[in-house]
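The instructor's notes for this session suggest beginning with a concrete chain rather than abstract definitions. Hand out the sequence below and ask the class to guess, before any prediction is shown, which regions might be ordered.
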Amino acid sequence: MSEEPSGYEPLPLPHRRELGDAEALAAVEAFRTLMRRRHSVRDYETRAVPEEVIAAAIETAGRAPSGANQQPWHFAAVADPAMKAKIRAAAEEEERQFYAGGAGDAWLAALEPIGTDASKPHLTDAPWLIVVFAQRYGVNPDGSRRKHYYVPESVGIATGFLIAALHAAGLSMLTHTPNPMKFLNGLLNRPENEKPVMILTVGHAAPDATVPRAATIKKPIEEIMSVHRGDAERKD
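After discussion, reveal the predicted structure:
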């Protein structure tokens, strides 16, 4: 981190966005509409995406909350075609073992409606790969370890910020998780304390891009939300 805190120092809330009820509903409905148009994409155009766009999206991810504000993440953005080819080759090797039986019958059956297999051309077709690393622990200037808290939760939140920012920029993406992913540390020269957790392929969807019908089926609000109103539940 560029600045280490020396103790608790309360500051006035630096930013405040206050909306009336109607404005709040309109704002969240507009964001909901935007995110309803997000789809995982495997077919990409080869046209470039400016690095500034990728950097702005990653900076947005860096604004996510994290356990004890440790910010236990690193995002390796890859545009180099040679490096993307190496990542694809290593990932496809892991995927071939996965689809050859390593996953188990139940997992493969669950994936069948998605239409995936061991071939991952999107890893070289997309102009950018963003590899998400979780920092399992921090390293102090003297080389000693510093404990990080709620690492999976913090990195998951930051990745959600990143996906939303990329979609807001008009880009398509896909989450890809070859297993194991340790090869990414060596290829991208990342330290031992970082664990690769995901590859995001990022770019513009190809004109003939498709999505599996199964992926468009989302749970309705009644299945993902429960409300506990307290005293309001007993009022007519």
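Then share the key points. The radius of gyration is 21 Å. The chain has a mean pLDDT of 92.
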